[in-house]
C-alpha cells in the first residue's frame, strides 16, 4: 500500500474547459503552496459524516408562533404591596432565645446556628403555644410548607410546629439569608432596651442605619430588610400557587416590615405591628388593619404642613408673628419645620429657590 504524506498534498487545481485559450489557464507558479495537515483532514471527514447522517428537518409551524400566557397565570416581579397573593401566609416569630432571656442583643449571623441562639425554656413553651394556635386556625389542614430562618431558634420552632401539625420534615424549607435577624451593628451585645434607639431612627427614615461595628455584624436599615423580605416573597409567590406557607422568623423586624409592605403601611411605622415572641399572625393583604394609621393619613399630614409653609411665607397677616419676621426669616423657619416633618423635597426647594415660589415648585415634584 502506498503511503502519502500530508506534506506532499497540495491544493488541487480547478478543472477548466478545454475551450479556453491557453493564455487564460493559470500557471502553477501563480498558485500558492498551502499544505494540508492531519487536523484539516479529520475536520473535513467529520463534517462530511455529520452532513450525511443528520437529516434535514424543516421547522415546525407551531414552534415559530409566539407563546401566549393567560393573563391570570402570568406573574412578573413581585411588588409591594401586591395586587394579589397566590398563597396563604402565616407569620410566626420564634419564641424567646437564650440571648433574649439574658436581655442581650445578638444579631451577628456568624452565631445564628449556635446552640446559644436556640430557644430558651420559656421560648419552647411560647413556640408550643404558637404551634397549637396554628392548628386551631387550620393552617395545615390541607398541607403546608414551613419556611424558617436557618437561625437556631427559628428552625427549632419550625420543628415544633411541624410535629404538632403532623407535617413531614420534608416540608420544612430552611431559608439561609433572607430571614436572618435584622443586623443592629454597634448595638450588638448591648441591653435589649437600647433597641428603642433604633426604632426612633426608623420612625424618621427607612434608610437610617444603626452605627457600624467591625465584628461582622451587619447594620441594616428598614430599607435593607425590606429588600430581603421582598426577595423572599418573590421566591414564594413564584415557587408555590394555592398553598399555605408558614414563615418563621427569629426576630420581629423581619415580620413587621414584611407585613407593612404587604398591606401598604408606611414602613417607618413598622414598629406598630410588633410581634411578641411566639406570636402567630395570618396575613390578609386585602385590607389594612383598622387599628393602624394607613399611609394615606400620613400624606394628608404632609399636605397640611405644606399649606402651613405656604401661609407663613406668603406674608399673610393671619400668619401672626411669623409674618412680621420677614420673608427670609420665615423661610428659614419653614425649612426647619419641613425637615422635621420629613418633607425633604420642600426643604430643598426652599434652599434652592430662596422664595416661596421655590417651595411651590418643589412641592409639585
From TrEMBL:
InterPro entries, sorted: His_Pase_superF_clade-1 (IPR013078), His_PPase_superfam (IPR029033)
Residue stretches in coiled coil: none
Pfam entry (one): His_Phos_1
Domain of life according to the entry: Eukaryota
Protein name in the entry: Phosphoglycerate mutase-like protein 4
Source organism per UniProt: Juglans regia (English walnut)
